[in-house]
Amino acid sequence: MKITAIEAIPFRIPYAKPLKFASGEVHVADHVLVRVHTDDGVVGVAEAPPRPFTYGETQRGIIAVIETIFSPQLVGLELTDRERMAALMGRTVGNPTAKAAIDMAVWDALGRTLGLGVSELLGGYTDRMRVSHMLGFDQPAAMVDEAERMREVHGITTFKVKVGRRPAALDVAVVRALREGLGPDVVLYVDGNRGWTASESARAMRQMADLDLAFAEELSPADDVLGRRWLVSQLDVPFIADESATTPAEVTREVLGGSATAISIKTARTGFTGSQRVLHLAEGLGLEVVMGNQIDGQLGSICSVAFGAAHQRTSQYAGELSNFLDMSDDLLTEPLRIENGELALRPGAGLGVEVDEEKLRRYRTDL
Ligand code: MUC
Ligand code: MG
Hints:
- The protein is of the alpha/beta class.
- The protein folds into two domains: 121 residues, Enolase-like, N-terminal domain (Enolase-like, domain 1, 2-Layer Sandwich), CATH 3.30.390.10; 225 residues, Enolase-like C-terminal domain (TIM Barrel, Alpha-Beta Barrel), CATH 3.20.20.120.
- Helices cover 40% and strands 22% of the residues.
- Strands 4, 5, 6, 7, 8, 9, 10, 11, 12 and 13 form a ten-stranded mixed sheet that branches. A three-stranded antiparallel sheet has the order 1-2-3.
- A hairpin with a 2-residue loop joins β1 and β2.
- The relative contact order is 0.16.
- Bound molecules: [(2S)-5-oxo-2,5-dihydrofuran-2-yl]acetic acid (MUC) and magnesium ion.
- The site of magnesium ion has 7 residues, from loops.
- This is Enolase.
- Its cofactor is Mg(2+).
């Protein structure tokens, strides 16, 4: 169970349908595949999706920090030394996605070594999650068409709508068209990725007051401290902190300060070990939790399901698990399938998925 090597492999897969939102656009999945090897011949895998416009990480930066800082610290440790690994990696500031991918690949290797699923090891609450689909910026009719297709083909009935454009009327029109087009039974919520000011957000939320929104997420910057508190205090839906509250300390600060009333957990940035810390804090504080999406590929999405399905609080609401559908291809031998609005765990040890070596050869960019 000793770690003998950690690989960080860049790969590049174009999106068939790019995702556009207030803080950026994603046209190509320039991700990093992380493989943790052990002296038993076991290999654990995970993927790191850099989001430079949110966390400052890049594909090359993730590889550099893994190869030069984390790998030398972790090689030689046992897979069960996860608290020690977290402490060692925690000495380096930032780099959440690089740390998270190593942590999840270690859990995958541990599960494979023990012959148990990661989700069982984490908590084993259920074996699937309902899926929420994230709709990026487009014209109202195109977004309604996409949501209808997701409902028809995959049974998805929860949609997170990207907002935060100027003028805000563009987004208000989209959300209204979705409610009118899809009817009262779908769940709709909005995510602004900090695109609006607090007062623009308050105004837009008033204009959408009759549209039965379930949540609002990061509509304005959390660093506009008083404005954000003022906004959150007047809303009658939970306000989800996403990129502003990624660690237990940030969650504590934002929630106790009145800048958020719910949180998004993304395994892509807190792995399994860090996500459990955030989750347990959320339980202690009585916060609602949504499993978020860092625009993950299939490997990242199965990690979100493994974590979300493992715990009661993370499986309560639909998780954001479907944006891999917008990619032109992926790395797994058996593609994930969303059926009846759900994504199920894969049977088998670890994460229950395998990387297709031929596809990896095709998409890796380092050879
Ligand atoms: C989200 O919830 O904000 C956009 C950027 C990112 O890192 O995640 C997405 C979705
Ligand atoms: Mg968000």
